[in-house]
Amino acid sequence: MANCEFLNNKGTFKLKNPENNSYMYFPIANEAGVMSSITPTLNGDCKMNQNTFLLAPVSSEELHNNKSSRNFWVYIDGLGAWSATGVSAAQQAEAFSEDKEETELEAGIMWHKIARESKKYNIKSEIVSFVPSTDDKIELMKVTITNTSNEAKKVTATAAIPLYCRSADNLRDHRHVTSLLNRIETIDDGIIVNPTLTFDERGHKKNTVVYGVVAATGDGEKPVSFCPIVEEYIGEGGSFEIPKSILLNEEFKVKANAKLEGYEAIGAIRFEDAIIEANESKTFIVAIGFGDSKSDFNSIAESHLKEIAFDKLLEETKAYWDKKINISYETEDKQFDNWMYWVNFQPMLRRIYGCSFLPHHDYGKGGRGWRDLWQDCLALLAMDPSGVRGMLLDNFGGVRFDGTNATIIGTKQGEFIADRNNITRVWMDHGAWPFLTTKLYIEQTGDIEFLLEKQSYFKDLQVERGTEKDTLWDLSQGNKILAENLEEYKGTILEHLLVQHLTAFYDVGEHNNLKLHGADWNDALDMADEKGESVAFSSLYGGNLADIAELLKYLRDVKNVKNIDLAEELQVLLTGNNEVYDNVEEKQNILKDYCNKCRHNIKGKVVNVDCDKLIANVEGKANWLKEHIQKNEWITNKEGYSWYNGYYDNNARRVEGDGESGTRMMLTGQVFTIMSKTATVEQVESIIKASDNYLYDNAVGGYRLNTNFNEIKTDLGRMFGFAYGHKENGAVFSHMAIMYANALYQRGFAFEGFKVIDTLYNHCNNFDISRIYPGVPEYINEKGRGMYNYLTGSASWLILTVLTEMFGVKGEMGNLAFEPKILLKQFDVENKAAIEMNFAERKLKIEYINEGKKEYGDYRVKEIYINGEEYKFSEQPVIDRNVITSLDENIKHTIKVVLK
Length: 900
What we know:
By secondary structure, the protein is α+β, with helices and mostly antiparallel strands. Among the domains are: 320 residues, Beta-galactosidase, Chain A, domain 5; 93 residues, Maltose phosphorylase, domain 3. 29% of the residues lie in helices and 25% in strands. The protein is built from 23 helices and 51 strands. The strands form 15 sheets. The protein has an eleven-stranded antiparallel sheet, covered by helices on one side. Strands 7, 8, 13, 19, 21 and 22 form a six-stranded antiparallel sheet that branches. A six-stranded mixed sheet has the order 24-46-47-51-48-49. Strand 44 and strand 45 form a beta hairpin. The two termini are 43 Å apart. The model has no long low-confidence stretch (mean pLDDT 95). This is N,N'-diacetylchitobiose phosphorylase. It holds the Pfam family GH94_b-supersand.
C-alpha cells in the first residue's frame, strides 16, 4: 500500500485500492442533521438520530459483515452483471487474485469519490457521494459508467439501496415486526417508505418521517420500473451480493404509483436499456434521504436529479466547508500542513455526529458529553468564534449548585435534561474544563466582563455531589435551582466557576487529594468511587484556582471591581486556612455543611465579598494544593526515575511506582502537574526522562497512557480488564498525549513537545501502519492501527497546541501576542512558517521569517509588519486589539513577524 497522497493544500487526498483495508469509513454529513458513513465499497449507514436510520446501522464489525450496502448494478449484454461498487460475490472472490479490479479513492472535506475499473468487462465506474451543505436532508450520488472497450455495449442499469427506515433499536428488537409497519410507494422518480408507526423505546407512536430513494440519468431521464421488496429483489436463495433479479437481468414489473405493505424495502430502481459507445460514458444521479411527505421527494427529484445541478451543489458544498475551516498552516512539511487541515475539521464533525454516530463510535445513542461541550469550543475559538460567547453562557446552565453538572445533554444549545434513570455517577474532572475554555475565550477577546454575566443553575434529583437524593424534588419543579421565594436563582459565571472549584477543593479522600468518584477524564477509572483519589486532576484544579485569582486581579486592577457578589451559601467554602486544609475530616465537614445548605433550594441572598479577600482565599487554596502535591506525591522508583503519582485506588493505596509485576506509571498525572506548574523545571526534566523510558513507544505513535500493570485491577477501573495496548489500558491515547505536548510547550520544552506531536503525526500519516484516512484518531492500538477516527476531543487540543504554543499566536486579554516555539527544521526553504486564522473577526496570515536561520531558544521577535508597514512594539511583541479591529474585515491581512 502507498500512503495517502495529498492533491492540494485543502486536505484533498487520493489512495489506491482503499478497499484492501478493513474498518475504513468516511464521514459525509450536514448541519441539517444528516449523518452518513461511507466505505470504499459504499457500505456504511445514513441517519438523522438514534431512531431515524435510513440505511441499516453499522458498527465497525458490520462494515465487513453486512451485505446491506449502497449498490449500483450494470448488466452488460453478453457479459453479465457487474457491480459499480465492487459488491458482488464474483468481484469479491477476485479481491486477492490477479484479476482484482483497480480502484482509487479521492476525497475531501465532506465528499467522497471512488473509481473502479474492470479489465474483464472493459468497464469503469466513478461514484461521487456527498451530503449537501444546505438544509436538504439528503445524500447524493453521481454514478458515471464508462465503456473502456473499442465496441459499443448495451447495458441495463439498476440503483439498489436497501432501505432500513426505523430505529437502531429494531436491528434485533422486533426486526420483522417493524417491517410490517412499512408502507411502500413507487413514484415517478423512485421509491418511498412511510412506516405507519415507530416501534422503539419511545413506545408505539405515529411515524412522521418519510424515507426514500429517487434517481434519474444525468440528463434527467426518469426510471422505467422498480423492485421495492427485498425478497423479490434478491430472489429465493439470493442475497444482496448475488441478487437473482440482477444476475438474470429479470424484468422489474412494478411501475410508478404502486403501493405495497408489510415487507422489507429496497430502493431498486431500473433505467431504460442504453447503448454506451466505445470510450463514452453515461451518468446517473441518485438521492437518498428523509422527508415529511411524498412531495418532498418530488421536490428533491425536480431540483437535484440532473448532473449540472449535482455538480453545482457539490462545488457549493466544498466552498461552504472550506470557509468554515478558516485556519491553515505552512511549514516545511506539507504533509503535516494537510494532515492538520483534517484535524481542523474534526471538532466540526463531533458537533454534528456527537460521540456515537460513526461505526467505531458504537457505544452510545447519540449526543455529546459535558467535556465535549467545552473542548469543542476550544477549536471554535480558533476557527469560528462568532457565537461562542452565547454558547459558553448557555453551557454554564448545566452546572449544579453542588459543583457537579448535568450529564444528559439535549439537542438544543444549553439544553440539559434530568436523569430519569436515577444514575448518580459523578466525574470528578467535569468542574475543571469549563474554566479552561472560558479562560481561552477571555484571552482571545478581552471580554473579562463575561465573568459577571449571570446564568441559572441546573437542578435535578442528585445532591451532595452525587451521594444523595433530593426526595423533595420532582420534574414538575423544573430543572433550575430556586430561591426560597421559589423564583429561579441566577449567579455570575464567576460564581459558577468558584462553585465548581471550591466544592472540588473540599471533596477529598483520606490522602487529602480530590476524590476520584466515578472517574476523572479517564472514564475507565470507574471502580474506585469510595476511596479513589485523582492527584492528576487535583493539580489541574489547583492550576485553575491560581488562574482564577489572576483574572480577579485583572478585574480589580484594570476594571476597578472592588467587590464581588456571591450567593450567601458560598461563604462556607471561603472559610479556612492551611490548618483547616491539612485536616481531611474538617474539609469534608465544610463540604457537607455547604451541600446541606443548598440541598433543595437556596436562600437566594447575595453577599458582597471584598475582591482582595477573595483573591487571597482562592490563591491560598491554589498554593496549598500545589505544595501538598509537591510534598506528598513526588516518587522515585528503585531504578532511579522520578515522576508524580497520579492516583489512589479503592483500597486507598498509591497506584504508581514500583509494583509487584513491574513499574507502574501513568501519563495523566505528569500532564497536569506540568501544565499547572505544580512540577518545577527540574521535575519536568525528570518526568520527561521517566516518560521516555517507560511510556514512549515509537512503533505505536509515541507516549502510551500507562505501563502494563499486569493485573485486572478491580479496585481502580475497567481499563485493566482491557488487553494491554488497547484503548485506555496502555494505548497511545491521542488526547492525553497531545495534552502532554501542550503542557511541555507551555513550560518552554518545545523540542520535547514537538517530539510528541511529530511522532503521533508521522504514525497516523503512515497509512501502511495506521490504516486510517487523514486525521487524529482517539487512540492507536497495539498493532499500530488508528482507532475511533474523527470524533475525538484530541483534535481541539491539537489545534490549540499548534496555534497557541507551536506558532505562539495567542490572545493576551484581547490583544494579539506572538510567542513562537517553532523549531528550525519546521521553517521552509525561504526560512518561513505561516499560519492563517481569524482574530478579532479579521482574517490574518501570520508569517514568521527566521532571517538568521536560528533554532528555537536563540531567536526573538524583533520586528512586526502589518501589510508591509512596521508596527512598533515596546518590550513584548503584542499588537493592540484596536489596531487589528481597524483593519478591513472583508480582506485577508498579512502580519510579518521577523525573528532574529
